Each structure stands twice: as structure tokens, then as C-alpha cells.
Amino acid sequence: MSDHFPRYAYEDFTIGSEWSLGSKLVTAEEIIAFASVFDPQPFHLDEAVGKSSILGGLAASGWHTASMFMRMFCDAYLLDSTSQGAPGVDYVKWKRPVLAGDTLTGKTTILDQRTSRSKPSLGFVKMHHDLFNQHAQLVCELEHTAMFSLREPIEP
Amino acid sequence: MSDHFPRYAYEDFTIGSEWSLGSKLVTAEEIIAFASVFDPQPFHLDEAVGKSSILGGLAASGWHTASMFMRMFCDAYLLDSTSQGAPGVDYVKWKRPVLAGDTLTGKTTILDQRTSRSKPSLGFVKMHHDLFNQHAQLVCELEHTAMFSLREPIEP
Fold first, then answer.
1. Contact criterion met (CB < 8 Å) for B41 and A78
2. Which of A126, A142, A149, A132 is nearest to A20 (CA)?
């Protein structure tokens, strides 16, 4: 799509390497905007209801948290990579509420990588992602296997 | 939060029962709006790029599809239930692209239910959800265990 070859390719996602996901401030306006469209449960829409629930405040929908992760992932390295997408996620765990005013940070840890047998230009990378709040508490974790093109395809 | 007792409680989610998730038309504007905020990969933002990719058209972000599922789930029965949330999802599989102009339908199948040992007013319901396009092709499936209050808590 452009003359620029992406900075990151399959070869860079070595097992055990860690990748920062930057940071993201979560605002009440964003929480309410997402929930209004996709998850209109009262504790995602109203601060008073959130405060009186076990969530302890206006809390982001779990799908909003996952979507904010996706943007952090895109900005940190995915958009400047040879990514070929992903067929799904192995799991998502929402460990603690993400509340209005929280600042999320995150990191990716590479669990495994292998090249495709049928398509020598392609590789599979198993990734574990952690998101933390400003108190260094884990709020969300997920794993998935992503596909990336090789920088230098293996000779057949 | 209101005097209305929800229509659906733990007891209603019997193993093997199926629950319709209604339907949802997916527009190009919605696909682009979601992707602009959460997943700005070119094939989610630009119809020409999507058409020339293996996705075959302007395709929704996988997280957008999951979020649209959440809204369908809310409107179909969750918002009128004793839902107490869910700690995560076991998996999400994106089986086919969701394209601009598609109409999604879906159903939930109840895989398992059990009451909490520590909290007799609470039960766990394992749910499988399928989303289809207008050609009856499976586009997304996911599973998770949700918590619901019992209508009539078990006597201790």
C-alpha cells in the first residue's frame, strides 16, 4: 500500500521479547460514548450507578477495554508491521474494573513463533498482552495468535 | 435499580435452550467510525483497500463485531435479566469478514449452568454465541460464562 517496508516483520517477534503498548487515559466521556452504542448496562452509563455497584465507579465495558487495547496495539507497533491479521483470540480476562480517570499501560510478551508450512512467506506469532492501571494493577489480559509476513521468506 | 424484577433469571437459562440475538444491519459509516477510534488498519477504513485485500470489501474490525454482538446480547435479553456480569470470554473466533451492508443475526445456546457454592443467590451460565450474515454463513462465535442472580435463592 506504500513504498515503505514495515519496520517490524515476523523475524522481530522473538520468543520472550517484550513490547510496550504505550499508555491511554480513559475518560468518562469515552466510557459513556462506547457503552451507549455497544453495552448500555447502567454501570457503564451512569457514575452514580457505577459507584454503588461492586465496580466502584463509572466502569468501562469489557469490550471497550479490549478495543482500547487494540488501539494501543496498533499505535505501538502493529500498524508499522507486516501484520496479516488474526483469526480470533484465545481468551480475554477482565481482572479489575477500568474506571473513568484511569491511565492504562500495557505490554506484549511473545510466547511462540513458527513459520507456516504451506505458505513460506507467512509466520504465526503467539502473543500475550497485559494491561495495567496507574496503580500497576492488572486490569485485563488476553492471548491470541497473529499472522505476520516474513521479511525474508525462507527459500523453498 | 428499579421496582421491575427482571424478566430472566438464572433459572431460565436451562442447558440446551436457545436464545435469539435479533438482527443488526452493519453500515460502512459504523465500520469506519469504530475503526477510526479503535483499529485504524487500512482495510477497516477504506473500501478500495478492503476490496483489494483478502477480506473482499470494507470489513469491520473483529473487536467491532464483538462489540456489535454485545449490543445484540443486551437488547435481546441481558438488559432484562439478573445479569451480574462476566469475568472474561473463553475465546472469540472471527470466521469470515463482516462487510459493509451485511445484516447480522445470532443466537445463544446454553452449554451449562450451576449455582455458586459460596453464594447461594448466584449462578454461573456457560453460553455459546453464534453470529451469522445474511447468507447464513457463520461470521463469529464466542463462549463465556456469565453470572446471574437466582429468582428464588436456594434455602441454605
1. yes
2. A132
In degrees and rounded to multiples of 5, residue A36 shows phi and psi of: -60, -35
Contact flag B93-A83 (C-beta cutoff 8 Å): no
Using CB atoms, pick whichever of B39, B49, B89 lies closest to residue A71.
Answer: B39
Q: The complex's ipTM?
A: 0.95
Q: From CA B124, how far away is CA A61, in angstroms rounded?
A: 20
User: A10-149 has which CATH code?
Assistant: 3.10.129.10
pLDDT in tens, B50-59: 999 888 999 9
Angle at B128 between CA B125 and CA B133, to 5 degrees: 145
pTM of the full predicted structure? 0.95
Return the residue in A34, A36, A37, A51 with the most chain B beta carbons within 10 A, the one to mutate for interface testing.
A37
> In this structure, are residues A118 and A100 in contact, taking their beta carbons and an 8 Å threshold?
no
The CA-based angle B123-A99-A145, given to 5 degrees, is: 70
CB of B150 within 8 A of CB of B114?
no
Is A1 in Cβ contact with B49 (below 8 Å)?
A: yes
Amino acid letter, residue B129: H
Q: Residues B6-36: pLDDT tens digits? A: 999 999 999 999 999 999 999 999 999 999 9
Q: How many CB pairs under 8 A join A and B?
A: 84
Per-residue HEC secondary structure of chain A comes to: CCCCCCCECHHHCCCCCEEEEEEEECCHHHHHHHHHHHCCCHHHHCHHHHHHCCCCCCECCHHHHHHHHHHHHHHHCHHHECECCCCEECEEEECCCCECCCEEEEEEEEEEEEECCCCCCEEEEEEEEEEECCCCCEEEEEEEEEEEECCCCCCC
Beta carbons of A78 and B40 less than 8 Å apart = no
